[in-house]
Automatic annotation (TrEMBL):
<feature type="transmembrane region" description="Helical">
    <location>
        <begin position="110"/>
        <end position="132"/>
    </location>
</feature>
<feature type="transmembrane region" description="Helical">
    <location>
        <begin position="74"/>
        <end position="90"/>
    </location>
</feature>
<feature type="transmembrane region" description="Helical">
    <location>
        <begin position="153"/>
        <end position="171"/>
    </location>
</feature>
<feature type="transmembrane region" description="Helical">
    <location>
        <begin position="177"/>
        <end position="201"/>
    </location>
</feature>
<keyword id="KW-0472">Membrane</keyword>
<dbReference type="Pfam" id="PF11361">
    <property type="entry name" value="DUF3159"/>
</dbReference>
<feature type="transmembrane region" description="Helical">
    <location>
        <begin position="35"/>
        <end position="62"/>
    </location>
</feature>
<keyword id="KW-0812">Transmembrane</keyword>
<dbReference type="InterPro" id="IPR016566">
    <property type="entry name" value="UCP010219"/>
</dbReference>
<protein>
    <recommendedName>
        <fullName>Intracellular septation protein A</fullName>
    </recommendedName>
</protein>
<keyword id="KW-1133">Transmembrane helix</keyword>
Amino acid sequence: MTSTPERERPTRERSESLAELLGGRRGAWDATLPAVAFAVGWLAAGLWGGVAAAVLAGAAVAGWRLRRGDRPRSVLIGLLAVCVAALIALRTGRAGDFFLVQLLSNAASALAWMVSIVVRWPLLGVVVGTVLGQRGRWRRDPALLRAYGRGSWVWVATYLLRLVVFVPLWLGGQVVALVVARVALTWPLVAAALAVSWLVIRRSLPAGHPGLRHPSPASDADGGRAN
């Protein structure tokens, strides 16, 4: 009895797997809670109120993530980002500057993903390959390397879209609008990127390809021609 090729499995099953590999819904919502708390605190008690609410929310999220077994390093980085954002806002006296770290992060992420595609180490492949324990084996599969490169452009687009929306709001000091945009462009946008990037990968792989978990070995010459 032959097994069903990865390409023929239900799209929903593979999309959910890809979502888990890339962080999933929980990570996206975790990132929005401190921002929402900041806006509520800012509206209720000014800048200091917003900062206190954001830090408390960040600490609560960090504690929850530790309890569910997340890596301490990842948790501390998330909490540190909230604290740095709060310090920047206090330093400048502008509530909108609480979101400056996020703007810089999205700009850096867009650049990093673009560079990774150009140097033929698309980050989508790096992330998924690392989680699947493949290290660099996926790069020896020309079709998979090409598919990951095309799928990575979808993620570049998400970071650029956020910048297009966030930068004008930040320049205008629109704190509430920034929070609304952050929520709208976090999990919903991540979900859309997961679906679209998986569709791009699926359509880029040739018929009969064994799928993400089973890269097909190929010669270095073939791999060098994949884009």
